[in-house]
Amino acid sequence: MKRRSFITGAFVGTAALALGVNLYSPSVTNSMDDIHHRVLFSVLIPVFLDGALPEVPSHKEIAINRTLDAISQSITHLPIEQQQELMELLELLEGRFGLLLLSGSMTPLLMREPQQLIDMLEFWRHNYLDMLTTAYNGLRELIMASYYACPEHWGNLRYVKPTFLVHNAH
Fold it and tell me: Which domain of life is it from (predicted)?
C-alpha cells in the first residue's frame, strides 16, 4: 500500500467515523454554541475580508460584529441540510480532533497567527478532496455575502442603492 493511499484512507475513515458520531449525537443548538461559532467566525472574518475591513481598530471591531450578526441571519435562511452541514463543520473546527483532521494541527484557530490561517484556508481551497474545497467555498461565500449584505459596506464596492422616482398623481 502506498503512503498516500494509506493517509487518504485513514483520513476518509476518520472523517466517516467523526461524521457518524455527529449523526448520532443530539443536535441541540443553544446560546453557548452560538458564542463559540461567533468566536470562530470572528477569527475567520479578517482573513477572508483582508483589505475590505476598516483600518481603525474600533471601526474594524464594529464591522466584524455587524458581519457576525449578518452571518447569524444568513444561516437562518440557508436550507436545513446546508445549515446542518455548516454546523458539523463548525463543530469540527471547534474541537481539537476536528482541527487535527481538517488542518493537521490541534492548535485552536483563535491561537493561530493570521498567516497560519491563510495557509490552512489556501490548503483547503486547492485541495483534491472535495470536502475541503467545499468547506473553504462555503465559509468564504457565507462571510463575503454577510459582510456585503450590510448597506454600510456597499461603498467598498462603489455600489449605490438605486433610487426610484415617485410621481404624485393629482
Answer: Bacteria
